[in-house]
Amino acid sequence: MTDELKVEVAPDDELEATVSEATDTADDAAADGIELVEDDEDDEEDEEDEDLDSEDSLTYSNGVIEKIVAIATREADHVLGMKGNLMHFVQETLGAENLTKGVSVEVTDDNRVIVNISVIIEYGAYAPAIFEDVKARVTERLEAMTGLEVAGINLRIEDVMTREEYAASHKHAQESAE
After folding, report:
1. How many domains does the chain have?
2. pLDDT band per the 50, 70, 90 thresholds, residue 83
């Protein structure tokens, strides 16, 4: 039987002393003919840890989910653009395009997704119809691409513009960045 010694990680300044003490204890026990046996509860915990380490897993970063949502939202009729926060504005001013602007996601305890979207819609369009279109597209894309269930979608209309106004403001922002 191989003697294994479990050492808990301590703050760096205490780590060297802890390892030294544990080694001395194991050496003393071996010199006295005492066999060190690990606690059964520790064995069970180790086996559970090994099981967790050996399982396959698939995870998505929030950025991936947000990007899928943003692209699906932009596909909806009468959605002119996404409305982000100040950080997104600064990034765009510096020339970076942020595809996740205007989107945030929350994952519930049961691995469902709550999506928050802020958009600019076209003047004259019927907002409830835009909401239903965005909701259907986002739900379909997320489930098809990730298998995640959508628990809820919150759509916030941040602005209303004509297509011409939006194009002009977008062009002005790009020129400012250059």
Report:
1. 2
2. confident
The CATH number for 139's domain is: 3.30.70
Does the residue 71 lie in any domain?
Answer: yes
Q: Is the Cβ–Cβ distance between 162 and 89 less than 8 Å? A: no
Q: Using one digit for the tens of pLDDT, what is the confidence trace for 121-142?
A: 999 999 999 999 999 999 999 9
Its pTM surpasses 0.90: no
**Which structural domain, as residue segments, surrounds residue 37?**
12-54
- Report helix, strand or coil for 106: strand
CB of 4 within 8 A of CB of 37? no
- Give domain status of residue 3, yes or no: no
Residue 59 main-chain phi, psi, to 5 deg = -130, 155
Cα distance between residue 69 and residue 140, in whole Å: 10
Rg (CA), the chain: 28
